[in-house]
Design a protein that fits this description.
It is built from six helices and five strands, in the order αβαβααβααββ. With about 190 residues, the protein is an alpha+beta fold. Strand 4 and strand 5 form a beta hairpin.
């Protein structure tokens, strides 16, 4: 009986070690850290449910780099550059902060509102509007170039960045050390 129990313990220990080795191998091939993106655009007006204070937002260096990369990409694709717009930047920063603070990643808040609701609440009634979201975990893999690359490799995000008729951009980035969230908002 003792011998059988010892064999079972050795077998279980070997199985655990084998699982750890397999897990390590899979982690090397399929890293858990990744950049995830989401994109949305609209040409319809949507009801406003959010109210925000008067924006006074400016790009930080990271946000400026994201906007510059998008503009370079648009110009290389034969389109106009999009200009910094403080209200859009304010809305983008609000979106990124909300995604970070409440730990979700969606174009819809837990209450069901969207960036389009925030835009309208802040006086933006443009007919062409779009939002690209991105998040990276761990945060250090979320460079501006990594987000641009991820958006370019997604047909809906790429179409959003290269939409004819956009003239303005807002970019908001939040980094808590473990996760980085980037929101870009476009309008005509």
């Amino acid at each position: 009986m003792k011998r059988n129990l010892k064999n079972i313990v050795v077998f279980i220990a070997a199985a655990v070690v084998l699982l750890l080795v397999i897990s390590a191998c899979l982690s090397a091939v399929f890293p858990a850290s990744a950049i995830e993106v989401k994109g949305a655009s609209s040409t319809r007006e949507q009801a406003s449910t959010a109210v925000a204070t008067k924006p006074q937002a400016a790009f930080n260096d990271y946000e400026n780099a994201v906007a510059a990369l998008i503009n370079s990409y648009r110009v290389a694709s034969g389109l106009n550059q999009v200009a910094y717009e403080p209200t859009l930047t304010y809305v983008a920063k609000l979106r990124s902060q909300d995604l970070m603070d409440r730990g979700y990643f969606s174009h819809y808040t837990p209450e069901g509102t969207t960036v389009f609701d925030l835009l309208k609440a802040n006086g933006i009634t443009s007919r062409l509007r779009g939002e690209n979201l991105g998040q990276a975990m761990p945060a250090e893999i979320g460079s501006p170039e990594a987000f641009l690359n991820a958006w370019q490799n997604s047909s809906s995000h790429n179409a959003n960045m290269l939409r004819v008729g956009y003239n303005y951009i807002g970019v908001g980035m939040v980094d808590n050390g473990d996760r980085i969230v980037v929101t870009t908002v476009f309008t005509n």
